[in-house]
Specification:
This protein is α/β, with parallel strands linked by helices. The chain is about 40% helix and about 20% strand. The radius of gyration is 21 Å and the shape is globular. It starts with a strand and ends in a 13-residue tail after the last helix. Bound molecules: 5'-O-[(R)-(carboxyoxy)(hydroxy)phosphoryl]adenosine (KG4) and zinc ion.
């Protein structure tokens, strides 16, 4: 029960990895990112995403096996993302995994994509696995599709603490970048622009209120606040989009910086409220595409230090969607004997 193949096709990335669950080491992780195909549309087009998954999945599998230096026969278990995500993209991965499992007589395990992200901070960039990440810990998962806090008690044993009521944090970055005339995704660009004005808060956008000191996220009001501040400054027209002569580089930097500082405050506030509510929590992990952001990592690290908690984050290549986190979760599920069968379906 040693070698796990992880397959991730829930959205616009095709990720396949091999994890050695005996040595607790990643042997390979290959990724094809479709960003270029979706950029011009300002978001992911589901039909294009699933067609591209179909084209790339076989070559990415071959590349992942070659990088690991093994043949397919050496694989013991196939772990595949089966929810949540775009149904067409998920179907490509799940059907492919079932074919491999049936044809090769291997066991199959369906993995929840969010659970994959949740445990991705156990992987180090060099492929080794962390042994010093304590339980119980808190996980802040933030990507283009989700922003949530989870109370993590053990491998595979977790419960949600807070979830966004509307947009995800990454979605807020992507939508604001689009408002300013940039393509998808926008998070990395916002970070770059914000750094040029030293992460100063120019516009003081509204922070989430916590009526009963309960942790919770909401980003759609923030996105609207940014929109109307741009309209007021004559840089955005509600019918025609950005007004380029007024959308100056200086304004873009100021908006990006104010937005990022605001999201940083929202994250830190939620983490502090959760630490207060659950004093047994020993550490925070920060995962998902938004965890690539160095400013947000530094803010959370500081908040943890103030509260006497440890801080861990997933390395950037495992923050974005990838097969390694799916293979890793497949590893502990195999130990727990939580197998699926060939009736495995998407979104169920
Ligand atoms: O986890 P991921 O690859 O896909 C989803 O499951 O959604 O996350 C993609 C998200 C996008 O919204 C993107 O704008 C955001 O992660 N992102 C960032 C950064 N890099 C990617 N957000 C803020 N700062 C970054 N450096
Ligand atoms: Zn994701």
């Amino acid at each position: 029960m040693a070698l796990i193949l992880g397959i991730e096709t829930s959205c616009d990335d095709t990720g396949i990895a091999v994890y050695d669950n005996t040595q607790k080491k990643l042997l390979s992780s290959m990724l094809f990112s479709q960003i270029k195909s979706h950029e011009i549309y300002g978001g992911v087009v589901p039909e294009i995403a699933s067609r591209s998954q179909l084209e790339k999945i076989e070559p990415i599998l071959s590349a992942a096996l070659a990088q690991a230096g093994i043949g397919f026969n050496a694989i013991d278990i196939i772990a595949v993302t089966h929810k949540p995500g775009l149904v067409g993209s998920l179907l490509v991965g799940v059907c492919f995994a079932k074919g491999l499992a049936w044809g090769g007589n291997k066991k199959i395990i369906g993995i929840d994509h969010i659970e994959g992200h949740m445990f991705s901070s156990f992987l180090n960039d060099d492929g080794t696995t962390k042994t010093d990440l304590p339980f119980p810990h808190l996980c802040l998962t933030a990507s283009g599709g989700h922003t949530s806090l989870y109370h993590i008690k053990e491998f595979g044993n977790f419960s949600p603490i807070a979830e966004t009521l509307d947009d995800a944090a990454g979605e807020a970055f992507d939508k604001v970048a689009k408002m300013m005339g940039f393509g998808y995704p926008g998070g990395a660009l916002i970070e770059k622009m914000a750094a040029e004005v030293d992460f100063e808060d120019f516009f003081k956008y509204p922070r989430t209120k916590h009526p009963n000191h309960e942790p919770m996220f909401s980003f759609s009001g923030l996105k609207t606040a940014v929109l109307y501040s741009l309209v007021k400054l004559g840089a955005y027209d509600l019918h025609n989009g950005p007004i380029l002569e007024n959308m100056t580089p200086e304004l873009i930097r100021k908006v990006s910086s104010s937005l990022l500082v605001c999201v940083g405050d929202i994250f830190c506030q939620n983490v502090k409220l959760t630490f207060k509510k659950y004093p047994e929590i020993k550490a925070l992990t920060f995962v998902g595409g938004v965890a690539c952001n160095k400013y947000l990592r530094a803010r959370l690290q500081e908040a943890c230090a103030q509260q006497g908690k440890q801080f861990f984050f997933a390395p950037p290549r495992f923050c974005m969607d990838n097969g390694a986190m799916i293979a890793f979760v497949g590893g502990y599920k195999a130990e727990q004997e939580k197998f699926s069968d060939l009736h495995l379906d998407v979104l169920k």
